[in-house]
Amino acid sequence: MSRNFCAIDRRQWTGGLLASSASLALASQGATRLLAADGKAPLQRFPRVMQEFLVQQVRAAHQRSLDAQAALKTHADAEAYVSSVRERIAESFGPQPERTPLNARVTGVLDRDGYTIEKVIFESRPNFPVTANLYLPKSSSPVPGVVGTCGHSVNGKAAEAYQSFSQGLARLGYACLIFDPIGQGERLQYADENLRSQVGVGVREHIHAGNQQILVGENFPMWRAWDGIRALDYLLTRPEIDPQHVGVTGNSGGGTMTTWLCGVEPRWTMAAPACFVTTFLRNAENELPADTEQCPLNALALGLEHEDFLIAMAPKPIVILAKERDFFDVRGAEEAYGRIRKVYELLGKPENIRLHIGPTDHGYSIENREAMYGCFNQITQVSDSSREPEIKLEADEALYCTESGQVGELKPTTVFGFTRQRASQLAAERAAVAPEQLPGLVREVLQLPAALPASPPHARILRDFGKRDYPQPYATAYAIETEPNVLALSYLLSPERHLARPRRQGKKAILYVPHRSSDQELRESLWLREQLEDAEVPVFTCDVRGIGESLPNTCGTNTFDDSYGCDYFYAVHGLMLGRPYLGQKVWDVLRTLQWMEVYGYEEVELVGQGWGALIATFVAVLSEQVQGLRIHDRPPAFTKIAMEEHYEMPLAYLLPGVLESFDLSDCDHALRSKLRS
C-alpha cells in the first residue's frame, strides 16, 4: 500500500534540481565553443532589476482592478461587474473546445460500508482519457454531487488528503468525482517504458506541456479547466446526482482549478477553493513561481485578480479555505475575501461568501476539510454534521482505473501529441508571408508598440570595471533605460580607456546581442572572437533585460536555469501582462539602437548568438537601422520546437500563437539582403 504521495511544493521545486552554471548553459548551445574559462564570474551588477520592474507592473495592474471595484456602489453596478469579469475570463481562457463524446466507462467497483467507489475513465477530448474515482453514497434518492480537483500529488486522486475529502463527502451523503490531473496519478504524459515520468511528475509535466502549447495558440489553463468541465458533464449524466446541488473543491493546484472553474463554468451551485486564493500581486512580490496553468494568458492585462474568478460565480455560496502558514500568502486571501464580500453585499447575499483560515501549513488538512463540509451541508441540508467521519484509506493500486496504473496502456493522444498535430497542420496551412507584411505580424506577436518613443532613452555611464580580456583592451559600460526602471547594459569596446559618452566615429557600428552574458561571451566564445577580431568599426554589446548584468538571483538561490526558476517566473508573468518576455527583450535592443543613433550610428550590423540570435532576427525585421545580420546557434524554427517531445527552449523565448502567423523561415526570407555568413 502506497500513501506517500510526495506533495512537493513550489518552495522545494525552486530550491532544488538546479541546473548548471552560466558556462555550462552557454556550452549547451550546440556548436558554441568556449575558450578556457578565466575564473572571472560574469558581471551581474543589477540582479534585482527584473523583480522590481515586475512588481511595479503587477502593482499597476492590481491597482486598476482595485479602482474598478471601488467604483461599485449599487446592485446594478455589482451585476455589471460580474458580467464584466465573466467576459474577461472568457477572453483570457479562450474559446472552449468542442464537446465531443465522453465515451465513459466503469472499469471496476469497490464496495465499502455506506458507499462505493467506481473506477471511471472518460475522454475530455477525443482519445484523451481522464481517470477518476466516483465515490457514491448508498442512497435511494439523488444526492448532491461534487467534482474534486487534485493538487500536485504524484499519485493524484489516491493522495491521502484527496481520498480523505472524497470519502468524507461520500460518508456524509455526497457523490464525489475526483479525477487525476494531467501529468499526475494515472495520467503521465511523458511516461517511459517503466511508467515513470521522463520530465518529472506534476509541476514539471505541466510546464513542459503548457509552455510548448503556446506556440500553436493553445492555452494550458483552458486544457486543465476543460477536464473539470467534462468531469461535471459526466457527473450530471448519472441518475444518482441531484443537479440542483453540484459543487467543486480542491487544494493547492486543485484550489487553482476550483478557482478557475468558478470563472469558466456557470453550473456550479457551491465552491470551496483551498490553499490557493491570494492575489497575483502577493505572488509576484513574494517571488513565488506558479505552473503554466496557474498563470492565465493576459489575465493581468485584462484587469483580473484571483478574486474575480470567484466573483464570476456571485452570489452563489463560496468558502475560501486558506492557511495561516501557507506560502500562498494568507494576507492576499483576506484581501480577496474583503473585496468579494463587497460585491456579495451589493447583491444582497453577504452570507454566501466565507473565509476560513486553518492554523497550519499548506495542505487540505482536516480543519479545512471540515470547514468545507460545514459550508456544503448548510447549503444542501444533506447532513447536520461538520465533523469528518472516520476515514479508511485505500491502497493506490486499489483505486487504479487502468490495469497498469497508467493511461499509456490505452494508446492515447498526449498533450504533446495534440501540439505536434496542430503544429503540423499550421505548417501545412500557413502561406508564405510577404516581406512587407512581416514587420506588422512580428509586432503583433511580440505585442510591441507601433513606434518607438520620440525621445531616445536616457543612459548612465558606469564606472570603469577594469580589463576583462575582451577582444579589445578596454570597454565602457552604459546602462540604458529602455523603459522606466528597466536597464539594458551596453559595452563599447575600445583600444584605450574611455569614461564618457560614445565618440562619433562614422555611421557604421556592430551591436552584439549575447546568448547569456556579453561579459562572459566576449571572454570565452571563440565564435564571437572570430566575428570581432577584424572589426573596423566600433563594437557595442547589449545585455537585454533578464540576462547578463541584470540576470536575476530571485525565486530562491541560483534558480535561473531551473525550468521553474526566476527566468520562467518573469516569462510567465510577461504572458499574463500581455507582454511576452521575448518582445520585451527585442524592445531593449530597439531602444539601444535608438540610443546609438544619437551618436551617428545609423548603419548597424547585428551579431547574435543563441537566444540573442533569435532576438537579433526580430530586431533586424523591425529596424531599418540594421543593415546586416550575423547569427549563430539560433533555433531553426518554432515548428521544430513544437514538434519535439523533449524540446529545451525556455519559456522566455516562446511566443503565444506565433505559428498561426509565421515561422523563422519567413524572417530569414525577408532578411535575405541583410544576412551575412
Automatic annotation (TrEMBL):
Keywords for this protein: Hydrolase
Gene3D superfamilies named in the record: alpha/beta hydrolase
Residues in Acetyl xylan esterase domain copies: 119-282
Domain of life, source organism: Bacteria
Any coiled-coil regions, as ranges: none
Signal peptide segment: none
PANTHER family noted in UniProt: ACETYL XYLAN ESTERASE DOMAIN-CONTAINING PROTEIN, DIENELACTONE HYDROLASE DOMAIN-CONTAINING PROTEIN-RELATED
InterPro entries tied to this protein: AB_hydrolase_fold, AXE1_dom, FrsA_esterase
Protein name: Alpha/beta hydrolase family protein
A single GO molecular function term of this UniProt record: hydrolase activity
Keyword NADP listed: no
